[in-house]
């Protein structure tokens, strides 16, 4: 049984760690922070825009060309990753890789996404829908009036329109607390007594046939909270993501972490991986910053899932050079200036830079040779990965992590 070290606790890190453990490896996951899941929408984007809105994400994956990571990964890897995520989180993720949901955002726009939480699905926008958007007076990060007004004036992807109105109710998550966070409300919704008080206050203001849109705070630990609210109201209910930190994202992060621990992954949190040891083009170990001296972890293989520029895994120095900050891996270059002034124009060239890899997700040097035979790079650090623009970041993270884990299994059973 091989020993594998995974570095990073975003979606790519958790998928890789779980898959490696499922494949029989001994896995250690090192991470310095909470990872990006808790900043996200709580759903899985496979392909959202290309550049027009995408309705069939897998068809868009099949049409992707280099340097996009999907050109290397292929549709098979993405389909397998979607299936694996649904297997990992059967109570938290539903959806079809060939059909995007069209879900509302915290400003009343409509966004495409592939997998979503069951508590979000009643918000799949369609012509003729009648919605009531419910604000909580003590939750300042959610404007029911803004959301309802924007939704009412938005032409839907199918060409239709929906009706939306707004109401606001005042039910305290904590007595004597005027401004409460989304997390405070989520913990309150975990309690059946609070849910009863909330539904008793809301129910008289609803009209027959309306679907109820609520801020995404319907429980953190209790997966039945949203369905209990819906049953008590007698209306379909859906959650709308809030600005970060995201309760929906926290649910995914906690579930992936719990599942990894259940299958034997050793998680070492709050540590910064600062150095590595290599010989004969193989990584022998990595070191974390601890007192009084660094601590080392040796392994047969290593998975780099540290993200990109946003996490500090890629850095731009004062000379205009981009560096991968742990292994000093080669990165791609561009033939133009790194930035241009057209904000609404093409992608900034800087953000297409990343680590080039082969089909097994092993980093390559300028000649196309593997830099280290037992190192794999996944997720946001990959070259050509501008997932915030085309909404492919989650799909790339999950598919590359799964492909790397399976490649390790083939090469190091």
Topology, pairings included?
Layout (H helix, E strand, L loop, with lengths): L2 E5 L3 H12 L3 E6 L25 H7 L5 H20 L5 E2 L5 E4 L5 E4 L1 E2 L13 E7 L7 H10 L9 E7 L12 H8 L2 H11 L8 E5 L9 H9 L3 E4 L6 H16 L3 E4 L3 E7 L2 E7 L6 E4 L2 E4 L9 E3 L5 E3 L50 E3 L9 H4 L2 H19 L2
Parallel strand pairs: 1-2, 1-15, 2-11, 7-8, 7-9, 9-10, 15-18
Antiparallel strand pairs: 3-6, 4-5, 12-13, 13-14, 16-17
Helix pairs in contact: 1-8, 1-10, 2-3, 3-10, 6-7
Give a brief description.
This protein is an alpha/beta fold. It contains ten helices and 18 strands.
Provide an overview of this structure.
- This protein has helices at residues 11-22, 57-63, 69-88, 144-153, 182-189, 192-202, 225-233, 247-262, 387-390, 393-411; strands spanning 3-7, 26-31, 94-95, 101-104, 110-113, 115-116, 130-136, 163-169, 211-215, 237-240, 266-269, 273-279, 282-288, 295-298, 301-304, 314-316, 322-324, 375-377.
- It is α/β, with parallel strands linked by helices.
- It has two domains: 3-93 and 250-270 and 279-374 and 383-400, 3-Layer(bba) Sandwich (FAD/NAD(P)-binding domain), CATH 3.50.50.60; 98-244, 3-Layer(aba) Sandwich (Rossmann fold), CATH 3.40.50.
- The protein has a five-stranded parallel β-sheet, covered by helices on one side. Strands 8-7-9-10 form a four-stranded parallel β-sheet, with helices on both faces. A three-stranded antiparallel β-sheet has the order 12-13-14, with no helix packed on it.
- The mean pLDDT is 95.
């Amino acid at each position: 049984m091989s020993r594998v070290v995974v570095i990073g606790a975003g979606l790519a890190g958790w998928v890789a760690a779980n898959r490696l453990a499922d494949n029989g490896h001994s896995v250690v996951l090192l991470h310095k922070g909470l990872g990006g899941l808790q900043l996200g929408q709580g759903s899985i984007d496979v392909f959202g825009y290309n550049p027009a809105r995408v309705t069939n994400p897998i068809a868009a994956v099949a049409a992707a060309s280099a340097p996009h990571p999907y050109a290397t990964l292929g549709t098979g890897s993405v389909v397998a990753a979607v299936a694996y995520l649904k297997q990992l989180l059967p109570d938290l993720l539903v959806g079809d890789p060939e059909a995007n949901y069209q879900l509302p955002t915290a400003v009343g726009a409509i966004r495409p996404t592939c997998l979503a939480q069951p508590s979000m699905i009643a918000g799949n926008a369609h012509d003729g829908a009648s919605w009531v958007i419910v604000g909580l007076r003590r939750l300042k990060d959610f404007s029911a009036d803004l959301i309802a007004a924007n939704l009412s004036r938005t032409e839907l992807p199918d060409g239709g329109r929906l009706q939306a109105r707004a109401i606001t109710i005042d039910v305290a998550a904590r007595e004597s607390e005027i401004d409460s966070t989304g997390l405070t409300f989520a913990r309150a919704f975990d309690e059946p007594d609070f849910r009863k008080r909330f539904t008793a206050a809301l129910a008289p203001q609803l009209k027959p046939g309306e679907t109820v849109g609520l801020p995404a705070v319907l429980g953190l630990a209790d997966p039945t909270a949203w369905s209990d609210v819906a049953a008590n109201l007698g209306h379909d209910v859906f959650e709308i993501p809030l600005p970060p930190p995201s309760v929906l994202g926290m649910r995914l992060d906690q579930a992936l972490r719990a599942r990894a621990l259940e299958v034997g992954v050793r998680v070492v949190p709050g540590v910064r991986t600062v150095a590595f040891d290599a010989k004969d083009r193989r990584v022998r170990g990595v070191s974390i910053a601890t007192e009084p001296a660094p601590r080392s972890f040796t392994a047969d293989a290593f998975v780099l899932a540290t993200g990109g520029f946003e996490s500090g895994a890629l850095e731009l120095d004062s000379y205009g050079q981009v560096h991968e900050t742990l292994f000093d891996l080669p990165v791609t270059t561009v033939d133009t200036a790194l930035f241009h002034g057209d904000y609404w124009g093409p992608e900034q060239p800087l953000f297409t830079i990343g680590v080039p890899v082969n089909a097994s997700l092993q980093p390559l040097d300028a000649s196309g040779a593997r830099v280290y035979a037992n190192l794999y790079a996944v997720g946001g650090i990959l070259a050509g990965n501008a997932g915030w623009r085309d909404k492919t970041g989650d799909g790339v993270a999950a598919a590359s992590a799964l492909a790397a884990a399976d490649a390790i299994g083939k090469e190091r059973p």
